Amino acid sequence: MAAKKPLILVTNDDGVYARGIRALVDAVSDLGEVLVVAPDKPQSGMGHAVTLHHPLRLEQVKYEKATRAYACSGTPVDCVKLAIYGVLKDRTPDLVVSGINHGANSSINVIYSGTMSAALEGAVEDIPSIGFSLLDHSPDADFEAAAHYARMIVKQSLKNEFPEGACLNVNIPNVKRDKIKGVKVCRQAKAFWKDAFDERLDPGGKPYYWLKGVFENQDKGEDTDEWALQHNYVSVVPVHYDLTAHHAIANLNTWNL
Amino acid sequence: MAAKKPLILVTNDDGVYARGIRALVDAVSDLGEVLVVAPDKPQSGMGHAVTLHHPLRLEQVKYEKATRAYACSGTPVDCVKLAIYGVLKDRTPDLVVSGINHGANSSINVIYSGTMSAALEGAVEDIPSIGFSLLDHSPDADFEAAAHYARMIVKQSLKNEFPEGACLNVNIPNVKRDKIKGVKVCRQAKAFWKDAFDERLDPGGKPYYWLKGVFENQDKGEDTDEWALQHNYVSVVPVHYDLTAHHAIANLNTWNL
Q: pLDDT band at B53, cuts 50/70/90?
């Protein structure tokens, strides 16, 4: 008898109808049994938000290459929780993949990203988990190269021992596949948004504020995700949920607390 | 001439009208100039969510012990961004404090917590930042001991060199002040929620799902926040936004990527 196919949970933050998640499902559909549970509407920038004070809904949707697919009324993290404890119940996914996101989730974006929070929630559940993001925000982005690398990295993840307590943050440069130089394992760059707000007046004369920002990389390290992406490598950063700044503990112990 | 008073930005995730944030403002009001920018409604479990696709509103509110106070229509992270770039513009806060949260934000809760995400956003902005949480969810919780320790830790933070790229996650046990044994600098415990969903039917017969969970600490370490809190210590965990699992990089480099 053939070995049981691995169960792959697919989610994202752009919503179940986005092209990126369809590209991801297509890329992995023959590597296992595919369950899709993804938000019923875009949830970009939702970070690790979780729905505590109202209930969630699930609606079955058609997905050619998935065994089952659902639209969920909650956040990306809700989708992972509800897939595991509401839909599957008696079986745990062998892999959680999130994306392919329309837009970068490198460096500091990891903390704002719904795509990466879904992957991190998979890690919290002790399941090998990967978030994939393409450096193109457009709804009509070309996912060919990203899907190719997603498939390759998923295959490797099913074959190798996955790092404990961590998920992978994979970003793919927005160039044709033959321009991509390969894959680099990196650390998160110290790069940040320089934020600002546009203050405008509504027709009633009351102010409202639009967030706008410029991304700035001040990290010169060649071992960072930003460096890799700038040089047309796919970046892979292992990301964990232990947020302790261990290096700061000794210093804090000198305070008079 | 007296030295300029430090500017303290106060926010939370329970909303500007919660008792916890009032207790925090009262505790620090004579230590600096206090600006309050906090959500106009409860935002628990919002994690690091940020509002990208619609504008934000600010409404001035009365706050006896603050120089200025605003209710913001966004998430806790939005409040920090809007305070710095929309309200203040030409001046940066010397300290960001978030809380006092009604409920624990120890161990894994740090990634779901709006209170802690606001503090982490302060760290991203390179501002000394602290999140305070009391281990009591009740709206009428007794904040006396928590406010006492918040004041002490704020004083120490204004006096000492703050750890770079990190904020502090401070949790206070829910006991009277004379029962608290002191303060312990800790690491985040490996403790998790064992999730489940209640599946119920609405009056129309369609299912909906309520998240419920039981908290389980399987970390026996005596250097953890959970240990400290269980033994009636105030826990202080330095928390940073570099999510790289540095220890996993060597292993990933052995994969055939």
A: confident
Burial degree of A172 (CB within 10 A; 0-12, 13-18, 19+): buried
Residue B55's pLDDT is 95
Sort strands B129-134 and B33-39 into parallel, antiparallel or unpaired.
unpaired
Are B257 and A156 inside 8 Å of each other by CB?
yes
User: For residue B70, how many other CB atoms are within 10 A of its CB?
Assistant: 23
Neighbours of B90 (CB within 10 A): 4
When CB atoms are compared, the residue of A45, A183, A245 closest to B239 is: A245
The total of other beta-carbon atoms located within 10 Å of residue A65's CB is 15
As a whole number of angstroms, the distance between CA B34 and CA B68 comes to 7
Kindly report, residue by residue over B135-177, the tens digit of the pLDDT. 999 999 999 999 999 999 999 999 999 999 999 999 999 999 9
User: Do A256 and B57 count as a contact with CB atoms less than 8 A apart?
Assistant: no
Q: Is the pTM for the entire model greater than 0.90?
A: yes
B17-27: pLDDT as tens digits: 999 999 999 99
Whose CA is closest to B58, among B85, B33, B34? B85
pLDDT above 70 (res B1): no
Helices (H) and strands (E) in chain A, counts: 6, 11
Structural domains of chain B, with CATH: 7-190+221-243 (3.40.1210.10)
* pLDDT in the model for residue A2: 55
Q: Which residue intervals of B54-201 are DSSP H helices?
A: 76-82, 114-124, 144-159
- Cβ contact, residue pair B257, A236, below 8 Å: yes
Q: Which residue of B has its CA nearest to A107?
A: B242
Six-digit token pair at B199?
């599946």
At A243, list the tokens: 């947020």
DSSP symbol at A224: B
Give B76's strand partners.
none
pLDDT band at A45 (very low <50, low <70, confident <90, very high): confident
Which of the four pLDDT bands, split at 50, 70 and 90, describes residue B4?
Answer: confident
Distance CA B77, CA B81 (A): 6
Strand partners, A239: A167, B244
The Cα of A231 is separated from the nearest Cα of chain B by a number of Å equal to 17
Peptide bond into B100 cis (omega under 30): yes
